Amino acid sequence: MTVQTTDLTSLERDILAAIAAAEDERTLDDVRVKALGKKGRVSKLMKSLAAMEADERKVMGVKLNGLKTTLSDAIAERQDELHQAALDARLAAEKVDVTLPIRPHAEGRIHPVSQVFDEIITIFADMGFEVKEGPDIEDDFYNFTALNFPPGHPARDIHDTFFFHPDENGERKLLRTHTSPVQIRTMQAEKPPIRIIVPGRTYRCDSDQTHTPMFHQVEGLVIDQETHMGHLKWCLEEFTKAFFEVDDIRFRFRPHFFPFTEPSAEMDIGYTRVGNEIRVGEGDDWLEILGCGMVHPNVLKNVGLDPDVYQGFAFGMGVDRLAMLKYGIPDLRDFFAADMRWLTHYGFAALDMPNLANGLSR
Length: 362
Fold this sequence. Notes:
The protein is of the alpha+beta class.
């Protein structure tokens, strides 16, 4: 079979025209298959080379390979054009008009934990407390030893600590079990008088309706030369009245044990239950809300303070628990469920910033 040069020129012209006329990538691929596929027009001509004389095969082989290259390049170029055109069309369809007006009502809500943090900070700021923060990952000294937890002390076990793998020195970092390490860091860095609160995340291996592996605490610390237990009781009484927004509150201190305070106490507040509602400040039942005490002399020694000169008090409370009590939230696990329906119900408007003049909560 003899293939004329004019036939190849005509074939090239027809296929190039079909390539140029393809309006999308699918149509272009059909053109490619019909021209260069196994049964395509050019492929059939390539197969016919076997039946030609040697001289003719040599000449036509060069021409057919040149035609194949020309068509392949044209297809690739057209494919790039179509791909870019499709991308431009998609971008044009997906563009956002930034001049459009915003939604009439904001959908975001402040999480109850964030709200309660702000409420607590507002109350203690009014008493002259400064906010301090510290790292979530601590070492044994700051989390235990400096706080009068000697090695092997059974109180270490009750914290159910998350430990990291030992480092090259055999020491194990840990996720802090309380925010008390920030108290140690502050006493090391600053001279008394000290009056701080420490809000932040803490971690323990515990999970049920009222416990989660990660939770939130606020601790307070006062160090000077004159502080005594009466100051501690007044401070916490004023805090609970302001936080629960009541004029009077029944409370009591029960003796307790904490390695870092002596004497130590847990604070209970009076409450009564009306249906599913807990009313704080009235009634004959008691509810424990925080732990407190006078800073242990050993803690003062561990940070380089003379316990014969300085003394003070410390307290700690669970922010999540306070939020549950104040706002009637039944399950702590819902705090971390990322359910917009729950947040819409229990959340707060973004501009409802707590202040003591107009009331802490909505």
